[in-house]
Amino acid sequence: MSDKKKVLITGGAGFIGSALSRHLQELGHEVYVLDDLSFGRRELAGVDDAHFLKVDIRDRAATQQAIARVDPQWVLHLAAIHFIPYCNQHPVEAADININGTINVLDACVDAEQVFVASTAAVYPIADGAVREDHPTGPLDIYGITKLATERLASEFHLRAGVPTIVGRFFNAFGPNETNPHLIPEVQQQVLSGKRTLQLGNLDPKRDFIHTEDMSRAMALLLGKGLTGFEVFNIGRGIEYSVREIVDAFERQLGEPLTIEVDPARVRKVERMHLLADVSKLKRVTGWEPKWGIDEGVATLLKEERHK
Ligand SMILES: NC(=O)c1ccc[n+]([C@@H]2O[C@H](COP(=O)([O-])OP(=O)(O)OC[C@H]3O[C@@H](n4cnc5c(N)ncnc54)[C@H](O)[C@@H]3O)[C@@H](O)[C@H]2O)c1
């Protein structure tokens, strides 16, 4: 059996999915992208028109037909509504896409060799210290609740269809082509627009930032292992940085001082102070090690042309 696979990525025109599409093609796999382009951009998918399927995963018949036509060996399901403030404002849409859309995708994957489903660190409750996969779940917001449902659906799919299924709990991704205004693209945008006094929200919360290239390698290594059951893996870097430390990294790479002004409109009412991954399971199973530090990542972001 060839180790080059026919792979379908849902959400492959998005921030993480586009890095994954590039990485899997570099490894020689044949990549198809399924995306409705609601948040993603066509050119980011990195595939020709024959390999691009513009489908809304809420459309069950269209999703079934598109996946049946490709008949992929590996499916990586990343399509979701994911920006927490957007999910809070549009809870019904978030639930529809993240839950019903996931049901539609999984039901179309019963003939796949392996399925990977993107989840999130937002399924964990507030915790001090690094969280392991067996830590009890306890999402704080509608987004985390829909993704915990995504995980449960993936487990049920595995039991029902017998397809080996991996859930990856992504921590905070950073890298080029970010589609949602998270902290790092926000700082990047303000710095690239010439500001040296930045308007930001809470400065003290710490997050585990992992580069999208490191995430893509982790996903490819996990699928390459040919695991047979249902497994959950944290995909983070295992280091946490505060907002202030991220701004410090921009300062170092820019070689100019940056001042921070707290903008009360940006301060979140409910905020976790820590979110840190224990990635020992991922490392033990795959031998994966992160390659990107925050400074190297920020250096490339300062050279990026931002899409307006
Ligand atoms: N960015 C992060 O830090 C982070 C952290 C944890 C988990 N995740 C998860 O990773 C995955 C990818 O996130 P991302 O940051 O790349 O976000 P993104 O918004 O850039 O990517 C999601 C993609 O899904 C597509 N999509 C949305 N609704 C769709 C629908 N109804 N039908 C078809 N396609 C649809 C969008 O157009 C977009 O291209 C998501 O499942 C998200 O929950 C991301």
Could you characterize the architecture of this molecule?
The chain has 308 residues and is an alpha/beta fold. The protein folds into 2 domains: 6-173 and 209-238 and 280-286, 3-Layer(aba) Sandwich (Rossmann fold), CATH 3.40.50; 176-207 and 239-274 and 292-301, UDP-galactose 4-epimerase, domain 1 (Alpha-Beta Complex). The chain is 38% helix and 17% strand. It contains 10 helices and 13 strands. It has helices spanning 15-26, 60-70, 84-89, 91-107, 142-161, 183-192, 212-224, 243-254, 280-286, 294-301; strands spanning 6-10, 30-34, 52-53, 74-77, 114-120, 165-170, 172-174, 197-200, 206-207, 209-211, 230-235, 241-242, 259-262. A 7-stranded parallel beta sheet has the order 3-2-1-4-5-6-11, with helices on both faces. Strand 5 (114-120), helix 5 and strand 6 (165-170) form a beta-alpha-beta unit. The longest helix has 20 residues, at 142-161. The N and C termini lie far apart (44 Å). The protein binds nicotinamide-adenine-dinucleotide (NAD). Nicotinamide-adenine-dinucleotide is lined by residues 11, 13-17, 35-40, 56-58, 78-82, 97, 101, 118, 120, 170, 172-173, 179-180.
